[in-house]
């Protein structure tokens, strides 16, 4: 039986944690033609959730991610990830695992009952980068008991992992696999990973090792053992100078989710013809760039946001074969989303934070 109303967390506007409201009277969505209705088992927290709430994507913000940005961007008119006004209220939640409980017109009823992971990227039919959307951003997401998505975005998953474990994968690991794919990382290459204890960083460590790369991870001293356990062969403490630690022109690829003042050093350690791939800037979006380093070393700079269907399909295959290890830090009920986001921002431990209905 599908109820008429459900529990969900509403983001009411840009601002602090007070903008998050858990309610139990939100209407259950009805799947439109080509869509499926999913009963959510678990949904994970990501940087995007916090960045959207505080308006960090606004060009008026130049600081690191975190609550400090909210004071400059609470009225942001360009607070959406693509520079557009964000539509409120919105149910966030990009990472979702659950089961299909109803289908819209044009979707075979045999899909009812499938356990699925949601591919969060809403791609236009022509495959272009124009008008790309994301679950939890351009449409309501998984911080609710039910969510609707296009049937093609609900990927069947066969796994003995729990819903909590599976919900930790889509966004972080999809982003990580996209970074490595776009950078053409191959066996035998060296990959420097910043923010290696976070959701995307820890995923990059695992996925790069699966490709046969040598992984050098940047993290804090206390998280070093965790990152080594995931496959990093060398760990550099976050406050160290990477050029002094590794030497100039010493790595093939840099995968960065940190940005900030250390950006220049990351280009210095790249070999000639090296590739820099980025999908985050938690230490700050405005970075120092010496164009001479870029062109005299024939470097490639890759911004990586939109994943292809092939990347997500590979991720599902890796999960089903047991090649990936979920890293769960904490689990919270929807009603405690403020605590969950505070824990997330504290970054005291390694791994993902997951919400459950």
- Mind describing the biggest β-sheet? 7 strands, mixed
Low-confidence stretches: none
Q: What is the CATH third-level topology name of the largest domain?
A: Quinone Oxidoreductase, Chain A, domain 1
Fraction of residues in helices?
10-25%
CATH class of the largest domain: Alpha Beta
Report the C-alpha radius of gyration, rounded: 20 Å
The coarse overall form would be globular
Q: Number of DSSP helices?
A: 11
CATH homology group of the largest domain: Medium-chain alcohol dehydrogenases, catalytic domain
What structural class do you assign from the helix and strand content?
A: alpha/beta
Distance between the termini: 17 Å
Mean pLDDT: 94
Walk me through what this model shows.
Strand 14 (270-278), helix 9 (291-296) and strand 15 form a beta-alpha-beta unit. Helix 4 packs across helix 5. The protein starts with a strand and ends with a strand. It has 2 domains: 5-168 and 326-356, Quinone Oxidoreductase, Chain A, domain 1 (Alpha-Beta Complex), CATH 3.90.180.10; 174-303, NAD(P)-binding Rossmann-like Domain (Rossmann fold, 3-Layer(aba) Sandwich). The chain is an alpha/beta fold and 357 residues long. It has helices at 47-54, 70-73, 163-167, 170-182, 199-210, 224-230, 242-246, 263-268, 291-296, 309-320, 337-346; strands at residues 5-11, 20-27, 35-44, 95-103, 115-118, 121-122, 133-134, 146-150, 154-156, 190-193, 214-219, 234-237, 251-256, 270-278, 300-303, 328-333, 352-356. The mean pLDDT is 94. The protein is globular.
């Amino acid at each position: 039986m599908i109820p008429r109303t459900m529990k969900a967390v509403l983001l009411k506007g840009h601002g602090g944690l007070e903008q998050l409201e858990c309610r139990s009277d939100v209407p259950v969505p009805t799947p439109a033609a080509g869509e499926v209705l999913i009963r959510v088992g678990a949904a994970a927290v990501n940087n995007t959730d916090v960045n959207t709430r505080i308006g960090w994507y606004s060009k008026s913000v130049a600081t690191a991610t975190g609550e400090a940005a909210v004071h400059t961007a609470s009225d942001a008119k360009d607070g959406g990830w693509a520079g557009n006004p964000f539509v409120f209220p919105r149910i966030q939640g990009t990472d979702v695992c659950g089961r299909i409980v109803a289908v819209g017109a044009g979707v075979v009823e045999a899909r009812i009952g499938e356990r699925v992971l949601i591919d969060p990227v809403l791609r236009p039919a022509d495959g272009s980068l124009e008008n790309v959307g994301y679950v939890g951003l351009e449409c309501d997401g998984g911080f609710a008991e039910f969510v609707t998505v296009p049937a093609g975005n609900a990927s069947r998953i066969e796994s003995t992992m729990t819903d909590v474990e599976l919900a930790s994968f889509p966004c972080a690991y999809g982003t990580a696999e996209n970074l490595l794919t776009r950078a053409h990382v191959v066996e035998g290459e060296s990959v420097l990973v910043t923010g290696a204890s976070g959701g995307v960083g820890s995923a990059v460590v695992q996925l790069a090792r699966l490709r046969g790369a040598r992984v050098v991870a940047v993290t804090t001293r206390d998280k070093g053992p965790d990152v080594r356990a995931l496959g990093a062969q060398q760990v550099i403490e976050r406050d160290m100078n990477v050029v002094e630690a590794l030497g100039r022109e010493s790595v093939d690829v840099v995968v960065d989710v940190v940005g900030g003042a250390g950006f220049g050093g990351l280009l210095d350690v790249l070999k000639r013809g090296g590739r820099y791939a980025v999908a985050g800037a938690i230490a700050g979006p405005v970075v120092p760039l010496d164009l001479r380093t870029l062109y005299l070393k024939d470097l490639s700079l890759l911004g990586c946001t939109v994943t292809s269907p092939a990347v997500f399909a590979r991720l599902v295959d890796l999960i089903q074969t047991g090649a990936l290890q979920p890293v769960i830090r904490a689990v919270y009920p929807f009603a405690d989303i403020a605590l969950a986001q505070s824990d997330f921002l504290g970054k005291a431990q390694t791994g993902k934070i997951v919400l459950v209905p």
